[in-house]
Design brief:
The structure holds two protein chains of two kinds. By secondary structure, chain A is mainly alpha-helical. Chain A is built from 15 helices and six strands. Chain A has two domains: about 50 residues; about 325 residues, ABC transporter involved in vitamin B12 uptake, BtuC. Chain A has a two-stranded antiparallel ribbon. In chain A, strands 3-6 form a two-stranded antiparallel ribbon. In chain A, strands 4-5 form a two-stranded antiparallel ribbon. In chain A, β4 and β5 form a beta hairpin. The two termini of chain A are about 35 Å apart. Chain B is flat. Chain B has eleven helices and no strands. In chain B, α7 runs parallel beside α9. By secondary structure, chain B is mainly alpha-helical. Classes of the chains: A mainly alpha, B mainly alpha. At the A-B interface, α8, α13 and α15 of A face α9 and α10 of B.
């Protein structure tokens, strides 16, 4: 008893920041419970329905899965190529635009000019209802769009690697980081050039697309369900690749120790290419799913999402794929449940604050260590 | 001795690292650090080598030379449109040159001298200019978000002080983090600043507590040329930017026109 007490005290003394965070977290928890119970004691408590909390948690999980999916690629490039890839967010946008172009082409072929479809409604004046892309009416188009987003983004990611990162392979992380900011700008404004700058709606609205889950008391949108199913499927596929294939073993080896991997005869360039294919493809797929969730698309949404993805990766520990998924879920839930306490203007700021606190208190992340496992 | 340490930490200037490491010219490497930011655009051909070398010996020569080159190019590009557009372009170029030189100096201080890679410089710029705007803007809410109506020099000093205060907060994690982590943290900090300044809730909160606002997502109108507003009348910062002929006294009385055109 005594030893645990003193060790707790020692930790508190050594890390006052940690104490502060734990105290703040406890206070918020007490506040949340008081709010749920409808008790009000001064600043503590208030009223909050259980239904609102449940729906906040559910939308947090959906956003978190999308962020985690994008975070996998970022975490892989971070651990295998050892640099923070700031162009990852624009790979997310690339996937969204190319994927939705293909999905529109299949959903609205014949009724709407092809140019309007491929540019995701930049040309022409077809409305989302004319094209009618929705998981309940055109499930095939949505699925093919998802695959296309993966494929196109993987291609773009490899092209970026060949053009920018391969000539700089042996440079240090900061030089590559700056190069990736430049690559991000190139991709972002190429997207703006091809697809236009305005924000626009994408998905059609369909009657009765809410599937209520009575036992849990939450209304689940058909698109949210699609996102959860496809994100989990992609994550499981990634898990299989990493754990049960030769490529995955080679990737984990390179993330762990690059020199040792080289000595043991791992074809590093081929592994790097595979990293870009998988990481970029997952980023593209997550961008596609994010647009399915939001229903709108804009040329720079990936860049705005990037810091949340970084937050997820840092939270889970850079280099850990499962950490990125878990970090994404935490960030997503912080993102949506923080609106209980603060104005929704600041829920993104709350997620960033969680990231900064994590870096300060536990830089190795929740799960720690450079292990792509 | 401390100078010898900086070139090693500094990654982008790899090209000139062997020059400074050369044992022969100890004098050059001693004053090698001040002109490091200027070597990025150097890349001298062998013919220009001598000129570049001479310019490198004196910083002021290099700065003035670059400035003259830019002015000459700007004049060449616009002289067919008449003297007015030439002078206008030179004015704009000088203004932006000075502004970006200031922020580049800030980054050079952090990244070049101490190796702290801060990519959130623009966030600190935003804190400075918003503070200045809130200090100098008219207290009358009819002109948009209200301010304190204080003279511009006070606003400038207040903006610098507030940005320095935020910098002190950013300095807390600076020494504990790896360079690329610090980059992400500073970017996160500047995003928090952007989200805060654009938030309508923060605007309302500020108006209630201190009586000045940020204008939320719509921002606040600022005079196009703050130098003309150095001498304010009744704290009125909202003179019409275009009409230079109208005196400031006139705009103070007839200010209800449309002074806050951003």
């Amino acid at each position: 008893m005594e030893t645990t007490d003193s060790s707790v005290l020692d930790t508190a003394r050594a890390k006052p920041g940690l104490l502060f965070v734990v105290a703040l977290g406890g206070l918020l928890l007490v506040d949340l419970l008081a709010m749920l119970a409808g008790v009000s004691l001064g600043p503590i408590g208030g009223s909050l329905s259980l239904g609102r909390l449940r729906s906040n948690l559910w939308s947090g999980i959906v956003i978190g899965l999308v962020i985690g999916l994008a975070g996998i690629g970022l975490s892989m490039t971070y651990s295998i190529l050892s640099f923070a890839n700031f162009s990852h967010g624009d790979l997310v946008s690339t996937g969204a635009f190319t994927g939705w172009g293909v999905a529109f082409l299949i959903a609205g072929f014949g009724d709407v000019p092809v140019r309007a479809l491929l540019t995701v409604r930049d040309a022409g004046n077809a409305s989302p209802a004319d094209i009618g892309a929705h998981i309940l009416t055109t499930p095939g188009a949505i699925l093919v769009g998802l695959i296309a987003s993966f494929a196109f983004t993987a291609l773009i990611a490899i092209a970026l690697d060949r053009a920018f990162y391969k000539p700089m392979r042996d440079r240090d992380g900061i030089a590559l980081l700056i190069a990736s900011i430049g690559a991000a700008l190139v991709v972002r404004y190429l997207i703006q050039f091809v697809y236009g700058a305005d924000r626009r709606g994408v998905t059609a609205t369909v009657e009765a697309s809410n599937l209520a889950f009575d036992p849990l008391g939450i209304a689940v949108n058909a698109h949210e369900l699609t996102i959860v199913v496809s994100a989990v499927a992609l994550m499981l596929a990634m898990h299989f690749v990493l754990q049960h294939t030769k490529l995955g073993t080679a990737m984990r080896a390179m993330a762990d120790n690059k020199d040792l991997a080289l000595i043991t005869g791992i074809p590093t360039e081929r592994v790097v290419t595979a990293t870009w294919i998988l990481g970029g493809g997952l980023a593209g797929a997550s961008g596609y799913l994010y647009v399915l969730l939001r229903g709108t698309i804009q040329f720079d949404f990936g860049w705005l999402l990037l810091l949340l993805i970084f937050a997820a990766v840092i939270l889970g520990g850079i280099g850990s794929v499962y950490g990125a998924i878990a970090g994404g879920l935490v960030i997503g839930i912080v993102f949506t449940t923080s609106t209980i306490w603060i104005s929704s203007d600041f829920n993104q700021a709350a997620a960033f604050a969680v990231m900064i606190l994590m870096l300060l208190l536990r830089p190795e992340g929740l799960f720690g260590g450079v292990t792509t496992a | 001795m401390s100078d010898a340490g900086t070139p090693d930490d500094r990654s982008p200037g790899d090209a000139d690292a062997p020059d400074e490491g050369a044992p022969s010219d100890g004098d050059v490497s001693a004053d090698g650090s001040p002109d490091e930011e200027l070597q990025e655009d150097a890349a001298p051909a062998s013919a220009l080598g001598a000129v570049a070398d001479a310019a490198r010996r004196s910083d002021i020569g290099l700065v003035l030379g670059t400035l003259l080159l830019i002015y000459a190019a700007a004049t060449l590009l616009t002289f067919t449109d008449g003297l007015n557009s030439v002078v206008g372009l030179l004015e704009t170029l000088t203004f932006f040159g000075l502004v970006y030189a200031l922020s580049a100096l800030a980054l050079n201080l952090q990244w070049g001298y101490t190796g702290l890679f801060n990519i959130g410089v623009a966030g600190f710029m935003a804190v400075g200019v918003y503070t200045m705007g809130m200090v100098v803007r008219s207290p009358d809410p009819a002109f948009g978000p209200p301010g304190f109506g204080l003279p511009l020099p006070i606003g400038i000093v207040a903006g610098m002080a507030m940005a320095a205060l935020v910098g002190a907060v950013a300095a807390l994690p600076a020494l504990r983090l790896k360079a690329d982590y610090l980059a992400i943290v500073t970017l996160g900090l500047s995003e928090i600043i952007r989200l805060t300044l654009q938030s309508a809730a923060f605007d309302a909160f500020l108006r209630e507590t201190i009586g000045a606002g940020t204008g939320g997502g719509r921002g606040m109108g600022m005079p196009r040329n703050p130098i003309r507003e150095l001498f304010l009348v009744d704290g009125q910062a909202g003179t019409r930017p275009r009409s230079a002929s109208s005196s400031s006294a006139c705009s103070a009385t007839g200010g209800s026109g449309s002074p806050t055109r951003s």
